Amino acid sequence: MDDCPRHHEAREGDEVAQPAERVDPREGLLDAAERLLVEVGYAGISARRLAREAGVNLGLVHYHFGSMENVFLEALERFTGRLVERHRALYASDLPFIEKWRTAMAYLLGADLSSGYEKVWLELQAMAWNKPDLKKRLARVSAQWRAVLTKAFGEAMQEYGLDPDLFPVDAVVSLVMTFNLGVMLERHTGVLAGHRELLGWIDRWLEGLEQGKRGKRR
Description:
The chain has 9 helices and no strands. The chain starts with about 25 loop residues before the first helix and ends with a helix. Mean pLDDT is about 85; it is low at about 1-15. About 70% of the residues lie in helices and about 0% in strands. The chain has helices at about 25-40, 45-55, 60-65, 70-90, 95-115, 115-130, 130-160, 170-190, 195-215. The protein is mainly α.
């Protein structure tokens, strides 16, 4: 087996929302916020620019959201909801865990990067550093991801027969979420060194666990 995991092709349909005719003004503003967060970042988005991008009256920004921060956060929450449901469906499938993992990592290195979700997430984390109320809402977004992974990893660890004292599921989930965030951040600053090697190492470890599981069934 080579050093790189055999990532599956990521499915389409998770891209940043594109303009559509006759869209509800509120949804249109969220669509526009997603696009602009990816293109120029939160610091480059004014209410006027957002309204122009959405093709709506400026007053509708305040009417529907009250502030630009609420626009950005609701855009992230909506975007996250789409991807969380995708991952729930993936981990609920009948595929072996290693294939689910490979697909999830293909999203990390491919579809989620090209969709702009990672940039939106990082942009709003930076925006929230000095704003406690925003931190709380971002923590709730993070908790959605943690819940999906905790369930999926807990079930997989039972299947593999891993000792929960040696591999506490909360610790494993934190490790994965932390290295995912590191990969996202480095890729957006042009640093690619070691990412595929890390995933290849994890893939080989999972292959060993899969072989052990198959051996127990014989």
